[in-house]
Amino acid sequence: MLRLQRQRLESMGDAAAALQTAIDLEFSTIPAYLYTKFSIKPGSNRQAVDSLSSIVGQEMTHMCLACNILNAIGGTPKLSSPVYPGPLPGGIGRDGAPLIAHLLPFSPEAMKQGMDIEEPEEPIPFPVERLMMAEAALTVTIGEFYAALDAFLAQLPNTQWAPNRNQIDDAQFFAGQLFPINSYADAHRAISIIVSEGEGTKANPLDFENEVSHYYRFGEVFYDKVLTKADNRLGYTWGPAPLGVDWSAVYPAISDPGTHDFSNEPPTARAVQAACNQAYTTLIEELQRAVSGERARLGNAVRAMFDLRMASTTALSTPLSQSDKVAGPAFIYTPSSTGAVQ
Fold first, then answer.
1. Is the distance from CB of 340 to CB of 77 less than 8 angstroms?
2. What's the Cα-to-Cα distance from 161 to each of 7, 48, 156, 164, rounded to whole Å?
3. Which end of the chain is more exposed for a tag (fewer CB within 10 A), N or C?
């Protein structure tokens, strides 16, 4: 079971730090999941693409909701670009060892990484042997982390909440998912959604909307087995139909392109990486401005996401000097002179 370092929650500063960890954690999953999704060849693995698209959209919403909560208690969200390969925020890991996140093309390894990141407190056993790890007393599960944060926020007086402070909502995008946080009730709803969509509910792979949660979506692809609602004691069953996974329908993308030396690559490969980095940088900077009071900037961020997808498609069709390989986006933040957030 994955765990992260326990954070003290005794003051508003502690709560703000915990919320920043939540923002960092939610954001750190997005490039990793996008890299895997982008590497799938068009027209193939439709179920896997749909699942990854849904997961990425929800992770983006979760990050924005965490920003809304932090703004609502007077804090200042900061979007920091993750580095790959690198440890996930909060010291998250298993058996005392940090989980190192990678940018991986579509593969069983990428799906296993997704399962590792999203693993719930009490995962329903898959039909394979699982290794049980001893857990350190000074760590908590992601679900416990959010539960502690929720408990602290529940004790705040109404005067600690700043209604309508730098809130972003679904007026432009994420219809029905993104909403302002103006009170503890709103924060509790947001935290419940974040945990439910990521992990599912206890002893149930479905979230609060009876949709398959992230951990089990990755599991469906990893095991090529459809998780199906059923009228039985558990409310679900595995199969009998396979999901329909084709591991070969993937671009020959290298892993962790951020560690690759592009200086000796053809100019076309270098140029398309620069285009990917520019779109990614614009995405971060526009999101930062959106959560800092310029709500309309969320539309610019969504457009930057589209630009990133288009640049990534070109990158994955551009050969490296090793002609049988390509490189997807390295997700490297290259700050501009006017919009730097780091």
1. no
2. 22, 40, 8, 9
3. C
